[in-house]
């Protein structure tokens, strides 16, 4: 009996695999889009939190606190179902990417802020004494060093985004998890498709972790 059940699960997982593999690039695309769009926003938020302007520090602090203090699922609902109340209607694709971007930017901003603060103050003073402006010092001296410090956390955030994309399935985005649910709706066998989806998430995360480690090793050799 158990052997037959296991065989049924493996068969359903194998049957669902082609559909899920077609959805995997969508999942990865969502994560990469949120990461690439979130990085510039995160840098602006991090600089605002380090700014000498009290209002900017307060505003950026509220943003980070709100995003970090509320569930991503609620944020997705606010963006997709809440914004139409103000006349802003987004497609599931845009709404999902926007919610993930805003969420990622809040976490990335803290990573960047800590990385910038980790650069010794003497680096700023030396660059300024050579005639560089504060903006040039930030761009040419501080940020390259901060990027090395932030790389592990940036990689972890991207891996987390790959898993978080499963939440956009609630707004009908046909990514990996939603594809598994659609397969289950046809076959009425949930374990196999969910197991196959979990394995694909695991493989994607493992590959990204491998890339992250190789980048860290290369940067360590260059340093």
UniProtKB/TrEMBL annotation:
Residues 24-212 form the ABC transmembrane type-1 domain. One of its GO terms (molecular function) is transmembrane transporter activity. The keyword Transport applies. Keywords: Amino-acid transport, Cell membrane, Membrane, Transmembrane, Transmembrane helix, Transport. GO terms for biological process: amino acid transport. It comes from the Bacteria. SUPFAM superfamilies: MetI-like. Its main location: membrane. It is a multi-pass membrane protein. PROSITE patterns: ABC_TM1 (PS50928). The chain crosses the membrane at residues 33-50, 62-83, 89-108. NCBIfam families: HEQRo_perm_3TM. Belongs to the binding-protein-dependent transport system permease family. This is Amino acid ABC transporter permease.
